[in-house]
Design goal:
The structure is a homodimer.
Chain A: H1 6-10, H2 40-44, H3 52-65, E1 76-77, H4 92-102, H5 114-125, H6 142-156, E2 165-168, H7 170-182, E3 191-197, H8 202-210, E4 213-218, H9 229-238, E5 244-251, H10 263-275, E6 279-283, H11 300-307, E7 316-321, E8 335-340, H12 344-355, H13 362-372, H14 382-408, E9 413-414, E10 423-424, E11 427-428, H15 432-441, H16 445-457, E12 459-460, E13 462-463, E14 474-479, H17 484-504
Parallel strand pairs in A: 1-12, 3-4, 3-5, 5-6, 6-7
Antiparallel strand pairs in A: 2-8, 7-8, 9-11, 10-14, 11-14, 13-14
Helix pairs in contact in A: 3-16, 4-5, 4-13, 6-13, 7-8, 10-11, 14-17, 15-16, 16-17
Enzyme class (chains A, B): transferase
Cofactor (chains A, B): pyridoxal 5'-phosphate
Catalytic activity (chains A, B): L-alanine + 2-oxoglutarate = pyruvate + L-glutamate
Amino acid sequence: MKTITPTNILRVFRGAERYLSTTSSVFAAKRVLNIENMNPNVKTMEFAVRGPIVIRGGQLAKDLEKGAKKPFTSIVKANIGDAHDMGQKPITFIRQVVACTAYPELMKSSEIPEDVKEHAKLILHDCGGHSVGSYGPSPGIECIRKHCADYISQRDGIPANSDDIYITAGATEGIRNILKLFVNEKARKPVGVMIPIPQYPLYSATLDEFGLGQVRYYLDEDKNWALNTEELERAYHESKNKYDTKVICVINPGNPAGQVLTRQNIEEVIRFAHKHDLFIMADEVYQNNIYAKNSKFFSFRKVMKELGGEYAEQELASFYSVSKGYMGECGLRSGYTEILNMDPEVVAMFNKMISSKLCSSILGQAALDAAVYPPKQGGASYDLWFKEMTKILNSLKERAKLVQEAYGSLEGIECSEIQGALYAYPRLHLPHKAFAAAKSKGVQPDFFYAMEMLEATGICTVPGSGFGQKEGTQHFRTTILPQTDLMKEMLDRFKPFHSEFMKKYK
Amino acid sequence: MKTITPTNILRVFRGAERYLSTTSSVFAAKRVLNIENMNPNVKTMEFAVRGPIVIRGGQLAKDLEKGAKKPFTSIVKANIGDAHDMGQKPITFIRQVVACTAYPELMKSSEIPEDVKEHAKLILHDCGGHSVGSYGPSPGIECIRKHCADYISQRDGIPANSDDIYITAGATEGIRNILKLFVNEKARKPVGVMIPIPQYPLYSATLDEFGLGQVRYYLDEDKNWALNTEELERAYHESKNKYDTKVICVINPGNPAGQVLTRQNIEEVIRFAHKHDLFIMADEVYQNNIYAKNSKFFSFRKVMKELGGEYAEQELASFYSVSKGYMGECGLRSGYTEILNMDPEVVAMFNKMISSKLCSSILGQAALDAAVYPPKQGGASYDLWFKEMTKILNSLKERAKLVQEAYGSLEGIECSEIQGALYAYPRLHLPHKAFAAAKSKGVQPDFFYAMEMLEATGICTVPGSGFGQKEGTQHFRTTILPQTDLMKEMLDRFKPFHSEFMKKYK
């Protein structure tokens, strides 16, 4: 009765359960905690990246393992930015540093390069009892915070301060920590948070969970998903009666759309935030993932400081993660938040709040250290590190082009330039009968398309409805992470599916 | 202006700031986010384990490093259950498993025992792309959940189901996840959660942060901190007008008081919870830390199932952590929650909620696996593992006795038997002038005592006021974690301080 089956889980997603037979949920005894009295915000929230299509993908993978016959032999998990899962090899330097801090006996081995050992020693020196098994300070290990600050200083050419750095279990925890500060059930009006549409659903899910308001501004697909000030003004003003808007979130490079904001665009956002007294949350986890020839990454911090004056004094939180970039170390759960210009009284409360969660994984922090403080030229690890890093970044660039060209060449699909990040977010022009078919199943048209794609090809993507999109438009997000061979195979599976789908529902 | 100094942080603790000169916090510009409009729950919450005494301890340690002259040459961090920081050595097997999963090249080495390699292979087999860098499933890696269930089955002699296991970043995250489900700002009355007094302040801090009500039941110090039903009834009934009480938390073995509940006591709690329809949260992270000859650990799960009938059907969440036991791997951040009898619709929502946080550290999960699925007899690692484990547990037992006897022999201190866990919670009978001195500084008497102790001896403890205590009583919590030599030194520093304090304020 109480078994948690995928079917059970599926039932929570609106509409989606019609794809699977539902189990009856007749209960003898009423539970203390039940669907009526539980946290209503948890009920409301949705997180499409791990939604019903992914769950169905997991089922199919298990069926295949058991020898079920399908039109495909494997599931391609193009739904989530998980590089290693799609065959990317870890960076040797990062893993050696982590292994040495975990098991310091390794430092006696001649197989481990000297610069790795020095690196590991530096970290262990700042660990209680020289062990990664000790709790660290809640904001992170001191030397690692310093290396994060050094990395930022070098990136921007403007000195950073390690006191502003907070190491977290991935950017996810950092984003949740900052949003948590704005929760105020006692406020006259709910606090509003501006988020881009399309957006990474962590934002919408966390806002729902925390009872904060979503103030949605639309990115301009016709201008390669650029951000425009009139649209920001529209969103801000239209929500004024409903919300007391205090925050603007920007994802740059963009997830899911892969755009890279121009410096001009960033300046506009900063001026807009200044005008309306908004706290800026800059999700910059893809800062190392830039592919387009004419694109360059500018941090909000750099642009703000260079604008100077009051602009330089604005409240900003910026997020970084070892899960993205060339590292792809999602499973190690580490990242940092840099907090600038926050009221010191709030900072004190923030420190108190994070202290009750003790600290983030020290081994994750070691990986973060290896990412922001990589081998120096001339060091024993440098050549291999450089080779591995450039190989990954070049291959991502190649795959970004491959995906864009492949989708761009198909009838009924438009694909913007993938300037950065790890995703394509192609637009679908679906035939009329597909809308009707989706409606009859009670799902969104692009959900219908993505589920049909999965069932026909084994390719797992996320429908645009999970990220948000202009009404009447249809999209899906796919990562560019399958390794080149698998990517080619994926596209070979995709093309016939797409043309058959278009034909079938014409 | 915006530097985060310890002084700044200290200001957030009521009364405590008088110990240090405060910085003026005059601000030119009003911030978007400020102390008036920020999350009021974050303002309210306190977390004494990392409170002002610990922060002052950190300052003193830095002063010592810089060559400052003090009546002591080191800080003894007896404030937090952090074994490795106090000199405990990691278990070789755990660290080898973690290192091999992080850097699989190691598995080619003849220095790594075969059973470690098999273990690491098993884990990597269940990782996406066979890499710990991939996101895991949100509830945890499949084989590790299975090993947790096997551990529980063996512990209780009653089969467990891996579907009920959720791996988390330490027990802290698990406890927060469960409490989160009960938050309901829209409910007629706030939801109340019964917590023991004294308690581990994660509970009070999280309840405050989440806006849940603290329903405090007092443990009976005269009966070695036993739990009694009349007191549970009193607490429940007295809070009835204020709260809709839905949860009872029990910490067994106890933190901070070190008691181990009898089976009889556990049965009483289960019957009480059944009578009043309460969800049981059993914090059992110290289940491997039992020292008293007449004490034995019984899990709530086992007692509930053995009581049978409707008792066996009660909703229960139990917590386990690699931070405690003989492992002491706090920094690796891993633990599990076993959830029993939860409404499947709520389970589905729970799965959705945790999915937005993606997964807990995979390397932490590997450590958890090595803890719940240790080497088998006959395996290459078994002898060393067994030797290391028993050495640690025997030494903890010895230190529990040492601490209890030392405190018990002093005038003005009473110390209950340390039956389990990692702490002593001695009661102070302070002289009258000490109360006056504390009052003049605006702090609690035991805060005053603990701060004086720190300044005189370098021993960092947590005053009873941080855990809660019967009005008019005074305590402090110290861990039994300093290694035996350091522990003896600590007691040698403590005794003269205490007798001088008693003399001075007589």
